[in-house]
Amino acid sequence: MFSENDRPHVPPLQRSLALWLALALALAQAAGAQTPLEETARIAAEPNFLGRPGGAGNDPQTSVAQPDFSARPSANLNTSIQDLLEPYGDPFAARSFLRTRGIAYSFTYVGESFGNVTGGARRGGIAEGRLDFQFDADLDTLIGWRDAAFHTNLYQIHGTGLSRHYVDNFMSVSAIEALPSSRLYELWVEQRFFDGQLGIRVGQLATDTEFAVSQTGTLFLNSTFGWPNIMASVIPSGGPIYPLAVPAVRAKYVPNRSFSLQAGIYDGDPAGPPRRGNDPDPQRRNRTGTNFRTNDPALVIAEAAYAYGLWDCPVFVDGSGGLAEQGLDRQF
């Protein structure tokens, strides 16, 4: 049992947010309640890339296929509050209209609350969240640019991080933890060649959306299972990983369902070196994600993966990769 002094302190505003979030979730679950048979049928009909030959994104079952960010759950049973809203989920049929023109957009919100009751730097509780806006355009359908696509996503991050304020650990408790800000993440155009086997992507990119990502590891909440921290610790400003991205070029070659090869060249410092009098935190030095730095030593990364036993179960994937930071002579 905790004494009154041992209880983690949670500010009233955070308690109110947590209560409203719990109430909203309860109402959503009640509105979308299903019988066990209906739920089984729904899950069976929803996409699930685990155990399928193509993997996520129709690539071999490897991290090359991760579509969004390293915190995205693998084997995700995609559900949306839009389905619960029925006709009100698409006001004026705007989403359907834009989809026929090659445009798709989405809003994803992640909210969470944690408390540290022992250990770390101090005891306390937090509430944090992130709103993720994503916009995609099929440029062939939209403007006739064959085999080309456009993508961007923006974050609105708010709340207090448990690691930063209470635990003071190196690998953050939550994979979405970042300084409160509204920021641009990725912004790119991709051109595909040879019936889609080769893709060249140019723009502002992050490495942890595609490289060194474990599809099964992304099921977990904390950052331990995301981008390898041994890389983040030796790359300036942690490297181009969430929530920072940099100007880059990435090429990916997928000749068949068993093999994929990708390589990219990125600006090696998303926030730039700290100067005397500047804030040492890279997220503050690039608070909006719009520094667009191109004059730092380059970060070069490559990854190959081969999947065999695709038509048997289980699927096995063997992958290897390499990373080099220009001017620092660090390789993995």
UniProtKB/TrEMBL annotation:
Keywords from the named record? Signal
Query: Which Gene Ontology cellular-component terms appear in the entry?
Result: membrane
GO BP term, example: carbohydrate transport
Claim: Signal is one of the keywords in the record: yes
* Source organism superkingdom: Bacteria
Statement: the UniProt record of this protein carries the keyword Cell inner membrane: no
Q: Which residues form the signal peptide?
A: 1-33
Region Disordered: start-end pairs: 48-72, 264-293
Q: Name one GO molecular function term.
A: porin activity
Spell out the family assignment given in the record's similarity comment: Belongs to the OprB family.
Q: What is this protein called?
A: Porin B
Its taxonomic path starts at:
Bacteria, Pseudomonadati, Pseudomonadota, Alphaproteobacteria, Hyphomicrobiales
